[in-house]
Amino acid sequence: MISEEKIVNWLAVKSDVNVKMFPERDELTQLRLQKLLYFLQGTYLSLYDEKLFDDDLVHADYGPLAVKAHAKYEGKRNLNSLINWEQALKDFSELNNIPKVSLVLNSVFNKYADVSTSTLVDITHHQKPWISAKSGEEISPKVLKEFFDSIVVQANA
After folding, report:
1. What per-residue confidence (pLDDT) applies to 154?
2. What's the whole-number mean pLDDT along residues 35-54?
3. Pairing verdict, β 57-60 and 63-66
């Protein structure tokens, strides 16, 4: 499993470049981070039958929420000022050199790079993992994997 902080750093670097190239796109906020962590975890579970990072996802009002990441960034909207950019660049490079991890990070990020954060919330609100859990309940990794198995295109299929 990869450290969730390294994944957040990777997302921060990728998002920063993305917004500089396309200013109309949404910055990495706490809410956007939560949705991307959900999509990353589900995709990784589907492809490799293991978690990408060790954190529980729970049903929250605005969609799936990664508990540890939420606790760390609670009350913060824009995450850029909280990122140690020197470390983030190291983590970005490190994760890009792990083929399985890089594939999932880049695929998920690229799929949702131009999707607004509010649309990401809407998407997650219509997906079985969020619907099947009650408010505050953990989203079962089994349910998450089963759902993503139905939407992730397997490279070897």
Report:
1. 60
2. 96
3. antiparallel
How far apart (Å, rounded) are the C-alpha atoms in residues 115 and 109? 10
15: Cα separation from own chain's centroid: 12
Contact 10, 105 (CB under 8 A): yes
- Token code pair at residue 99: 């083929």
- How far apart CA 121 and CA 129 sit, in angstroms, is 13
Q: Is the pLDDT of residue 82 over 90?
A: no
Tokens of residue 139, six digits: 């989203």
Neighbours of 103 (CB within 10 A): 15
- 128 Cβ partners below 8 Å, 6+ apart? 143, 146, 147
| Whole-number Å distance between alpha carbons of 1 and 60 | 24
Q: Roughly what angle, to the nearest 10 degrees, separates helices 85-96 and 4-21? A: 100
Q: Looking at the whole model, is its pTM more than 0.70? A: yes
Total length of the chain: 157
